[in-house]
Write a structure and sequence with these properties.
Number of strands: 10
Shape: globular
CATH superfamily: Aldolase class I
Number of helices: 16
CATH class: Alpha Beta
Radius of gyration: 20 Å
Number of domains: 1
Order of helices and strands: HHHEEHEHEHHEHHEHEHHHHEHHEE
Structural class: alpha/beta
Strand order of the largest sheet: 8-1-9-10
Helix content: 40-55%
Distance between the termini: 36 Å
Mean pLDDT: 90
Largest sheet: 4 strands, mixed
CATH architecture: Alpha-Beta Barrel
Low-confidence stretches: 327-332
C-alpha cells in the first residue's frame, strides 16, 4: 500500500462509512485488489464479526416462456418451442414438498414473462404455499415479473403488490437488475424493464413492506465505472428504503446464449476472471458499508473455492443449498444442490463460524 496522505485519507473514509459520490468512488479503482480486499474485510469484520451465514433454499422456475428474450439468457423459450413449459400448481407444490423434506426454509419462485399466464395462477400459488407450508418463506418473483404481471393485467404496480402481499407474498428476489445502466441494458436486454422502472418497482415493494434482495450480473463488456454506477444506484435506494436484505453479484454465464454467438462476430469479450468477482465483492462492501450488511458469495456460478476467497474480500454470506435451479443450468453450469452439512464444512474450512439463517437473516442455528 502506498504510504501517502491521499491514500490514507481514502482508506479512512472507507473504514468510517463514508458515503462516496461517483467521482470519489472512482478513486477506489486505483487500489490493487489485495489492498481493496483488506479494507473490505476490515469493514466486514466490523459489521458481521466472524460468522458466515447461509440459507437452506430451493429455486423453482415456473415457466421458461418469456417475451423479454434477453440476449444473455439461455433459459427462455418461445411458447412454440418443443421444450417450453408452464408448471402446474400441483407440480410446484410437489417440488416445494420435496425441498421442505430436505430442510428448505426459503423458496425462490421465478419464471419468464409469459402473457398467457392469468393473474389467478400467481395468486393461487401464493395462497396455496402459504396454506400448505406456512413456515416456508415465500420469496416469489422479481421486479421484472411484478412490472410485467401488473401491465399484463391492467393493474398498477402498487395495486399488484398490495394484492400479492394480501395473498401472502413475503419478499422477492433482486433478479432482473443485471447492470443498471441504460446503455448496457439497451444492448443486452432491450425489451426488459429499464433501470428506472426496476427502481420504481423495488421502492414501491419496500414501501409496501415487501423486502427484496439486490443483485448484479456483470461481464457483458461493461466498464468498471458502469459497475460502480450500479452499486451506487443500489446504495441510494437502500438509503431511502432500507428494504434490501442482501447484495448478490455473479458473473454472466455466456454458454448457450445469443451474446455468446455474437462474440465471434464482434470480438467482444464477455468472459471475466476471478479478480473481477473479488473486486466487485470488495467494492460493494466499501460502498454499501453501513447501508447494507449482507454481501453474498455465490458458489453456484463462481465455484466453491472462489466463493470461499470472497469471504476474505468483504462477503459474509455463502448463499444457499439450492436444491433445485434451472436458469444457470441452461447456461452450461453443472451442479448438484448442497446439504446443510456440506455448507457448514465449506464455511468451516475458511476458519469462520457457520450460521444457518432465514431469508431476513435471522439466526436459526449456529454451528
Amino acid at each position: 500500500m502506498i504510504n501517502d496522505k491521499p491514500t490514507e485519507d481514502l482508506i479512512n473514509k472507507c473504514i468510517n462509512s463514508y458515503k462516496f459520490s461517483f467521482e470519489e468512488a472512482k478513486d477506489l479503482l486505483n487500489f490493487d485488489l489485495n489492498t481493496l480486499g483488506l479494507i473490505a474485510d476490515e469493514i466486514r469484520n466490523k459489521f458481521c464479526g466472524n460468522t458466515v451465514t447461509f440459507v437452506c433454499d430451493t429455486t423453482i422456475n415456473y415457466t421458461n416462456i418469456c417475451s423479454s428474450k434477453c440476449k444473455f439468457c439461455a433459459f427462455y423459450r418461445n411458447k412454440s418451442a418443443g421444450d417450453a413449459y408452464v408448471l402446474t400448481i400441483d407440480e410446484i407444490l410437489q417440488k416445494i414438498e420435496k425441498a421442505v423434506n430436505l430442510g428448505t426454509t426459503q423458496v425462490l419462485l421465478q419464471g419468464g414473462l409469459n402473457a398467457d399466464i392469468p393473474l389467478s395462477y400467481y395468486e393461487t400459488i401464493i395462497k396455496a404455499v402459504k396454506d400448505k407450508f406456512p413456515y416456508v418463506q415465500r420469496h416469489f418473483f422479481s421486479a421484472a415479473e411484478i412490472y410485467f404481471i401488473a401491465k399484463n393485467n391492467d393493474l398498477s404496480v402498487d395495486e399488484l403488490l398490495k394484492k400479492f402481499k394480501d395473498d401472502g407474498l413475503q419478499s422477492f428476489g433482486g433478479g432482473g437488475a443485471e447492470i443498471l445502466v441504460a446503455k448496457i441494458r439497451n444492448e443486452i436486454s432491450p425489451y426488459k424493464i429499464s433501470a428506472e422502472e426496476w427502481k420504481e418497482v423495488i421502492i414501491k415493494a419496500h414501501k409496501t413492506g415487501i423486502k427484496t434482495s439486490a443483485t448484479m450480473v456483470y461481464g457483458f463488456g461493461e466498464s468498471k465505472e458502469d459497475r460502480l454506477r450500479h452499486l451506487l444506484f443500489l446504495r441510494d435506494i437502500q438509503e431511502q428504503t432500507n428494504g434490501f436484505t442482501a447484495f448478490i453479484p455473479w458473473s454472466f454465464q455466456p454458454q448457450n446464449t445469443v451474446l455468446n454467438s455474437l462474440n465471434s462476430l464482434n470480438k467482444r469479450k464477455f468472459s471475466v476472471g476471478g479478480d473481477d468477482y473479488l473486486e466487485i465483492i470488495a467494492l460493494s462492501r466499501i460502498i454499501f458499508n453501513k447501508f447494507l450488511k449482507n454481501i453474498q458469495a455465490s458458489w453456484l456460478t463462481e465455484g466453491e473455492k472462489l466463493a470461499q476467497v470472497g469471504l476474505f474480500y468483504g462477503a459474509n454470506d455463502f448463499s444457499g443449498t439450492l436444491i433445485e435451479e434451472n436458469v444457470v443450468r441452461e447456461a452450461g453450469i453443472k451442479f448438484n444442490g448442497k446439504t446443510r452439512e456440506e455448507m457448514v464444512n465449506l464455511i468451516k474450512q475458511t476458519g469462520r463460524i457457520p450460521v444457518q439463517r432465514d431469508t431476513f437473516y435471522n439466526v436459526l442455528k449456529v454451528f
